[in-house]
Design brief:
Strand order of the largest sheet of chain A: 1-10-7-4-2-3
Structural class of chain A: alpha/beta
Number of helices of chain A: 23
Low-confidence stretches of chain B: none
Distance between the termini of chain A: 67 Å
Oligomer: heterodimer
Number of strands of chain A: 10
Strand order of the largest sheet of chain B: 2-1-3-4
Distance between the termini of chain B: 29 Å
Structural class of chain B: alpha/beta
Low-confidence stretches of chain A: none
Strand content of chain A: 5-15%
Radius of gyration of chain A: 26 Å
Largest sheet of chain B: 4 strands, parallel
Mean pLDDT of chain A: 95
Helix content of chain A: 40-55%
Largest sheet of chain A: 6 strands, parallel
């Protein structure tokens, strides 16, 4: 006889995935910042146009997208098997693989490796996974200083700010603001620094070069891990990542488990999709790949930390799991009319924009906190994100699915329905019968009394949020149904 | 061919002229149109707000109402998008596979107005006359869920006497998004103000679209600004003739 203990539940993610405020409140703060809106509007419009131009020139773009989607879907179905294959290959080539169930676990693993190497400073390659787990803060608490070496990440770090975009974390700053940040926080900076891009980059270059040459430990993320050979890959624009990946003695890579691809043939598809979708380039300037440890060449110790942090829980949702297909190109952010106006901080998570709105709440649990629960609603469902996604993640459908999860979970958690739930149930009852519906329509004519000069300028809450900026239409004397019945029946 | 008009709950209640124009237009083209009184709402508001369980009776009612017809036409890209992309999903989620299959069959015969005219009836010149300066906003769901492409524009370009001007940033959402306009009213308003700026740049007298919901949003903003620009559904423009406009 067997006892059914229920389905195993995966742990939810911890780390930098939750905001302090629900999206509407955080967005209101961001909308009040006119400079922020100008900066982000200008930047996203530029990248959007670049992407559109380089995507247009690929005749088989739609087939590539479909291939990307299919590879990801097939990989996710057997992710457990592929991960063990990856572990075996990395280990066979001299690397060490660590399994981290959540952010705290991953931070502990990395800290212990850095301490064992006797290092007090580490250099970092731009990485979303380490932002997600709050690695810099965890290392700092252990007396280890982490230096971001990606120019935009460096700007954000020196400003004591948080990234606001997946690809361009400092998108919310303009050149003048970056100059101010460097002057205030970059040790040894030229006080005569001017705000043109070449001079700003040169200042960062001079500052970072010393770090590359002295650091004993580097920490990276990964764009891909190829299971068949245990090879890791990072694509980047600046070459600073390659400095980190080749100069220090010890290399630690923190990678979300969904970044795995089974074969090299799969990588070929993504290396075509990713640069055009993210930076709007035909090809990224640097693609670094490394396989275990090579004696006398590059880092002599390599550690791979495989991060779950809620991903297994996402995999358990048969609709929502598509969010794990994301290759972090950020094309969806750049076309999103909501992101363009609020910026990334309003989403409260290191993953902002449309992909963040479906990924963050799934990693934390949709109803775990008010900020996560608000994210699936942070979209007008215009669908621009779905059109540009290089792996065809149906973001609008997943948003709707997560809204349903939010409502269903709230139903089981609370004894009393919310006013919204009551209104929706009432509307459903009325509209499931045309007789009831016709009577309700006649009732709407009461709204005619609110009309002034042909429109309604003020309605009671929650519709007052409509009339704050828009007039409402005056109900007509006769509905279409009434007109039809009188004239046609 | 038996064509049924699905007026949509919004047009039926608040914008009856749009439904009347749809009937007038199709009759002028020689087609018989019926308005089955059993109809109510497609249930999109429920689905998009997370209340799929509450949407189920509305899906069932839609399928029952429109099952007997050869074609169903709605003056809304958004509602047709819901019928085509959500109805079967709602039924399946509720475990009603039989309803899901019937919903798929009715959805396959449900058309947005420009689709019915161009794809099914094979008309691009509906013989309309509308002597005004007009700009066209392609609504998100007609553009991205239904892929109507330039069908509405092909119809509009054949309207006599009309000065059709291109809307800058046309493919960007107006910020309506159903309950989004209430739940995230500040972001919605920010999107609306950019859409209105673009409409005003065209110096058009009329902003048209294929969805009364988006037009209610854009028009509500333009009216608050006392801009003098009117919003008119594309069905009303296509139904206009020399003696009626």
């Amino acid at each position: 006889m067997t006892t059914f203990l229920g389905m195993p539940t995966a742990p939810s993610g911890v780390g930098m995935l939750r905001g302090e405020k629900p999206f509407p409140a955080a967005a209101r703060d961001a909308l009040a910042d006119a400079q922020l809106r100008r900066n982000i509007g200008a930047a996203t419009n530029t990248i959007r146009a670049k992407r559109a131009a380089v995507v247009q020139e690929v005749p088989d773009w739609e087939e590539l997208r479909e291939a990307g989607r299919a590879i990801k879907a097939a990989t996710m179905r057997e992710l457990d098997r592929h991960l063990e294959h990856l572990e075996a290959e990395v280990t066979a080539r001299g690397g060490t693989v660590h399994w981290a169930s959540d952010a705290n676990d991953a931070n502990d693993i990395v800290r212990r490796i850095v301490e064992a190497a006797g290092a007090h400073q580490v250099v970092k390659v731009k990485s979303m996974a380490t932002q997600e787990i709050g690695l810099n803060e965890a290392l700092e608490a252990a007396g280890i200083t982490a230096y971001e070496t990606d120019l935009a990440e460096l700007i954000v770090q020196l400003a004591h700010d948080r990234p606001s975009h997946i690809l361009v974390p400092a998108i919310h700053f303009n050149r003048a603001e970056i100059r101010e940040i460097f002057l205030a926080a970059m040790p040894g900076v030229d006080p005569g620094l001017v705000d043109d891009p070449a001079h700003l980059a040169e200042a960062a270059r001079t500052y970072l070069r010393r770090k590359f040459l002295t650091a004993k430990v580097a920490i990276s993320g990964a764009n891909f891990a190829v299971a068949e050979t245990g090879t890791l890959a990072v694509v980047e624009s600046e070459g600073n990542g390659r400095m980190c990946l080749t100069l220090p003695e010890t290399l630690i890579t923190v990678m979300g488990i969904e970044k795995l691809v089974p074969t090299w043939q799969d990588v070929e598809v993504f290396l075509q999709l990713l640069p055009r979708s993210s930076t709007g380039e035909r090809m990224n300037p640097y693609t670094s790949m490394w396989t275990g440890v090579t004696p006398g060449d590059g880092p002599q110790a390599f550690h791979l930390v495989l991060l779950d942090n809620g991903r297994t829980a996402v995999l358990a949702d048969d609709v929502g799991r598509e969010a794990l297909h994301c290759i972090r190109c950020s094309a969806c952010l750049n076309v999103c009319p909501v992101y363009e106006r609020t910026g990334g901080h309003a989403y409260g998570s290191v993953y902002p924009g449309p992909i963040g709105a479906i990924l963050s709440p799934q990693l934390t649990g949709v109803n775990e906190n008010p900020a996560s629960a608000s994210l699936p609603y942070a979209s007008s469902l215009c669908g621009a994100c779905y059109d540009v996604c290089p792996v065809k993640i149906d973001i609008p459908s997943i948003l709707i699915h997560l809204r349903a999860r939010h409502v269903e979970e709230a139903r089981t958690e609370h004894a009393l329905p919310t006013p919204e739930a009551l209104a929706m149930a009432a509307a459903s009852w009325v509209m499931s019968d045309s007789g009831r519906w016709a009577r309700a329509q006649r009732g709407s004519r009461l709204g005619r009394r609110l009309a002034r000069r042909g429109s309604i300028g003020r309605l009671p809450p929650p519709l007052s949020r409509w009339t704050a900026a828009r007039d409402a239409p005056v109900p007509p004397k006769e509905t279409f149904r009434e007109w039809w019945t009188a004239n046609e029946e | 061919m038996r064509i049924a008009l699905f007026a949509t709950c919004l047009v039926d209640t608040l914008f009856p002229d749009v439904a009347k124009a749809t009937v007038r237009l199709l009759r002028r083209l020689g087609h018989d149109v019926d308005f089955p009184l059993q109809q109510t709402c497609c249930g999109q508001m429920h689905v998009n707000t997370g209340y799929q369980r509450e949407a189920l009776p509305l899906v069932r009612n839609y399928v029952e109402t429109f099952k007997p017809y050869d074609a169903v036409v709605a003056p809304s890209g958004s509602c047709v998008g819901s019928v085509r992309h959500q109805h079967a999903m709602v039924a399946r989620r509720a475990g009603d596979e039989e309803l899901a299959m019937r919903a798929e069959r009715v959805a396959a015969r449900t058309y947005e107005l420009s689709e019915l005219l161009v794809d099914v009836l094979g008309v691009e010149d509906v013989g309309a006359e509308y002597p005004h300066r007009v700009t066209y906003h392609p609504t998100c769901h007609s553009m991205r869920m239904l892929r109507v492409h330039d069908k509405p524009l092909r119809l509009l370009r054949n309207v006599r006497g009309m000065d059709l001007v291109e809307l800058p940033g046309a493919d960007v959402c107006c910020g309506f998004g159903g309950t989004f306009a209430i739940k995230n009213s500040d972001v919605s308003t920010a999107m609306l103000s950019d859409k209105m700026s673009n409409v005003l740049l065209t110096r058009a007298e009329v902003c048209t679209a294929g969805d009364s919901s988006c037009l209610m949003h854009i028009g509500g903003g333009l009216s608050r600004l006392r801009s003098g620009v009117r919003t008119v559904h594309i069905a009303e423009i296509l139904a206009s003739s020399a003696d009626r406009s």
